[in-house]
């Protein structure tokens, strides 16, 4: 590889796979552990009677953490309130960005499954959903990445739409071509994530797009069935190492530490997500008896599922899901507040009912 200069567009960014031994003893040890824990998470999700119940809460947490990596920070309260106000104006900008990210995950999953491929067009589409824009591949010169604290340039990505498209096309082949199937998919995912971030194809939204591609790749390779893995939480907890190791691959070809970092992330995240899902299901099971006692003949599984899909809920949500009409819905929620299953929160003219025990699990 030619000498890397952080001030010059890295148009010589090498294609994948790297000319380095990747299946070292240390990497393989972490690969086995990550695959084991990911398989446990996948298997557990397959046993769930209603796996989509978890999607609204887990995907929203992933969206929140991934956005926080880019310093788009919202509170749990603001976020869950915003999920109920989609048809109204959402005043909190950060919450709006997080919800766009969630929408991009669902859109990307649906589009990927149509062709069973991850393509450049898919990447562009995900970025457009995240940023709510019609922009595409970077055209203008001058993009430089700087240290947010010191302002010093740390990396200048490839420049010129033709060069960027060529690099994305080569990456697309690496992602989808069976020629590279001898590499464990989790090792491959680590390589893909680095390469996408190094190409840095968009003016904005690269980090979030790259993190969505991680979970789509895992689903595409049948390593997990639903986008329930929480990888952004691991990255934000280890943010300095994440950016340091990305730079070290570019500057020193330090693939070993980068791949191990990602493998550890998959292992820790799989374990954490499994614990969180178990905690949610345990809480739901414990709440069922109180729900039945309180609502009696009005109890329904659909209503119970709804309470664990939306940590914040209001009358209109019950109406929209056909649970009850306005007056009856109000009575139901008030009854659940009386037995402390929900906590009412008056905000302006609207009353929100908070599943506070679920919020405690999600906030940990």
Automatic annotation (TrEMBL):
User: What domain of life?
Assistant: Bacteria
Domain Fido per the UniProt entry, residue ranges: 118-264
Which key words tag this protein in UniProt?
Answer: ATP-binding, Nucleotide-binding
* SUPFAM superfamilies from the UniProt entry: Fic-like
Please tell me where ATP binds in this chain: 70, 200, 204-211, 242-243
Show the Pfam families listed in the entry: Fic, Fic_N, SoFic-like_C
Q: Where is the active site?
A: 200
Q: Which GO terms describe its molecular function?
A: ATP binding
Q: What is this protein called?
A: Fic family protein
Species classification: Bacteria, Pseudomonadati, Bacteroidota, Saprospiria, Saprospirales
């Amino acid at each position: 590889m030619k000498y890397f200069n952080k001030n010059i567009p890295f148009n010589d960014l090498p294609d994948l796979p790297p000319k380095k031994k990747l299946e070292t003893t240390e990497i393989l040890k972490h690969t086995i552990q990550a695959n084991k824990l990911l398989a446990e998470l996948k298997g557990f999700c397959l046993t769930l009677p209603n796996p989509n119940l978890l999607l609204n809460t887990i995907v929203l947490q992933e969206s929140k953490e991934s956005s926080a990596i880019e310093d788009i920070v919202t509170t749990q309260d603001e976020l869950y309130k915003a999920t109920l106000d989609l048809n109204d104006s959402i005043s909190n900008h950060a919450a709006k960005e997080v919800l766009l990210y969630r929408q991009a995950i669902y859109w990307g999953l649906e589009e990927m499954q149509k062709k069973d491929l991850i393509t450049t067009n898919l990447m562009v589409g995900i970025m457009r959903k995240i940023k709510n824009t019609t922009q595409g591949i970077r055209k203008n010169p001058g993009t430089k990445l700087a240290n947010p604290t010191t302002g010093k340039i740390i990396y200048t990505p490839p420049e010129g739409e033709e060069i960027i498209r060529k690099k994305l096309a080569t990456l697309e082949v690496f992602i989808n071509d069976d020629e590279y199937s001898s590499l464990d998919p989790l090792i491959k995912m680590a390589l893909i994530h680095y390469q996408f971030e190094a190409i840095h194809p968009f003016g904005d939204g690269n980090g979030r797009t790259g993190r969505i591609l991680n979970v789509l790749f895992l689903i595409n390779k049948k390593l997990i069935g639903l986008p329930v893995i929480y990888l952004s939480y691991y990255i934000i907890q280890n943010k300095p190492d994440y950016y340091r190791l990305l730079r070290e691959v570019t500057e020193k070809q330090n693939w070993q530490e980068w791949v191990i970092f990602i493998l550890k992330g998959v292992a820790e995240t799989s374990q954490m997500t499994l614990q969180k899902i178990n905690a949610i299901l345990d809480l739901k099971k414990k709440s069922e008896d109180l729900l039945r006692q309180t609502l009696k003949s009005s109890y329904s599984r659909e209503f119970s599922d709804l309470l664990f899909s939306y940590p914040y809920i209001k009358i209109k949500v019950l109406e929209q899901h056909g649970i009850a009409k306005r007056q009856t819905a109000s009575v139901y929620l008030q009854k659940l507040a009386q037995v402390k299953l929900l906590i009412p929160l008056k905000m302006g003219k609207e009353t929100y009912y908070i599943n506070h025990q679920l919020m405690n699990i999600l906030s940990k």
